[in-house]
Amino acid sequence: MKIYVVQPGDTVDSIAASQNVSAQSIIYDNQLVYPFALAIGQALLLQNASDTPSSPAYVGGYAYPFISRWVLEQTLPNLSDLFIFSYGFTTEGELIPPQLDDTFMITTAKNYGVAPILTLTPFGPDGQFSNYLISEVVNSETAKQRLIENITAQITDRGFEGVDIDFEYILPKDRIPFADFVLDVRTAINALGYLVSVALAPKTSDTQTGLLYEGKDYGLLGEAADFVLLMTYEWGYTYGPAMAVAPINKVRQVVEYALTKIPAEKIHLGIPNYGYDWTLPYVRGSSKATTIGNVEAVQIAITRGADIRFDETAQSPYFNYVLDGATHEVWFEDVRSLTAKFNLIKEYQLRGMSYWQIMQLFRANWLLLDDMFTVQ
Q1: Which helix (H) or strand (E) element contains residue 374?
Q2: CB–CB of 267/279 below 8 Å?
């Protein structure tokens, strides 16, 4: 594969001629929209012969049951695991399935040789992560064992092939009980022949403060789970100031800290499959960014006549535009930012990567991944 950055005056046809590739492959691989206009600074993935050696990697992707069947089928050939989001639970340990039927996801994943994974989340009645719910279950042997029994029954009855534990905002006092819970789940699920993973907030030190971090002990959880997902995204987020979602310099800091606590062969790097559109100026407490897809971001730049720039420190594309008198700033992912993340996985020989989330197809990502990795 080759990455080409669009220059002033470029067209699909002129790029195809100069780079010795077909115009149709440029259009298809990069999901260009008729009449196939381009943005200056847009990164295009071009298919050329490559002798880049592939590295083995496990690839996971999170999805809700309302995912388009077409998107799911386009994506599954690139995955090892499909994390089905999500299953909740009560304080008594009763399992709460997704509101929509996820049977087609389990069946389709298996048809493609991909493992469907039950994702467990502690959402309260308000739809937010509940540390009260976490605390009640991990500190009650009765509730914990009931929940584990219900999970194993769901796996046995419906064909799941593993469990992912995605708990956030764990109270500091529950740091050890939570790790014990993960280990207990792993013991039960391993007995069925499957693996258990746990999602970790992006810490950079043992002493990092904040409710997102203090209840997640990298060392204990690295031992308790079969593998971990580093949630290396959301530096730029809905309610924060405009910035890269996953700046590579920040991502590297998390990986380097994680490696002091967890073996590389147990670590998945989290990769965002989305961007954000902020209205400026940012006002803490009232500003709210709009979530957008990576293909959608480029279309916004084209429609608004914006040039796409690339932040070399964050290794991330961004641009500004004006709409109805308001200035907007957009940060998203492209094949350049993804290459930086893939190279980090190779550099540290991590187990693989997991995408949040795969609800929108970004074809160039999967073509690039296929060029750089052999999916396990």
Answers
A1: strand 373-375
A2: no
